[in-house]
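task queued by scheduler; priority normal; single chain, no ligands, no partner chains; default sampling; output format set to structure tokens
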Amino acid sequence: MKICEGTELFNAFRKLDLLEEFLEDEEITEIMINGTQNIFVEKNGRLFQTDKRFLSRDKLEDVIQQIAAGSDRLVNEASPIVDARLSDGSRVNVVLAPIALNGPIVTIRKFPKEAITMKQLIEWHSISPEAVDFLAMLVCAGYNIFISGGTGSGKTTFLNALSQYIPKDERIITIEDNAELRILDVPNLVSLEARNANVEGSGAVTIRDLIKSALRMRPDRIIVGEVRSAEAIDMLQALNTGHDGSLSTGHANSPQDMISRLETMVLMGMDLPLAAIRRQIASGIDIIVHLGRLRDKSRKVLEIAEVTDYRDGEVILTPLFTFRETGEQNGKVQGVLEQTQEIMHTGKLLAAGYKQKGKSWSTV
């Protein structure tokens, strides 16, 4: 992307220096700065090293302080790791020296200016129309849905798209480390964001604090952007106390792995018997949607599984939709997301006024 010298000068003094060029390029989805000399970008799922360089470490650190200040965050040698966001919603992670030996390290995850819809995900073959109709019905009926996947698999994007099926007359509370969700056209929306401790080490507001506070705000649904640690116990308690239709995401390699990771995260916050934790998971989460990045770098829904039971000390998962590869064409993985099983727990669908006709459900 070619920019004139005057624009470079303006960016250097008034904006985020050479980062502006990458931020304005809509094809770039991730920016990775490894010190002053090595800058990489991701385009179409592939990494490229750029020829751009920061003039000095001081200049890069000035940009970092500008980003942190814009999110009311603090980053320095005493507190060398910070998560922040840019004004356009892009997510930023910063790690300073001496923690980062070749630092400062800045990683920026960009998000599209317009929220991605399920229609677009269908066009990109990330999910099938049948699976979208199925999930839309479950969201409307108040099923608790957990989205799992690896780094960069599209969990936040999918959560945003899925949230558009929430009825517009409900009160929704979103809880995030860094505000990234874009819930559209919902008047009764409360967005909460965690806060780091100040210079004196006080004033922190954690995800756990926000979940506990949200329960006193009369929510219909609670959306936790990502569960990473001890807040899992608070989220599960919320799911088990009448807040149907809640959504969240977490890092995992499969739906079954997500169950195991939730168990571990709960133990970080409370010493409970494993059987009690598994019962909480089985009764609180209805559906796990698992996303993945295939070898061609495409992002797809790989499995939709129902949490069907707690039996013999284990949480039982039943795959409802599974992605099956059919080959490759022009370097792109081909496949279909097939329905393999009917949903077993239909109580919420029936309570929401859905009726089953053959294998399909409708409100008529």
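post-processing summary
- The first strand starts at residue 28 and ends at 34.
- The chain is about 30% helix and 30% strand.
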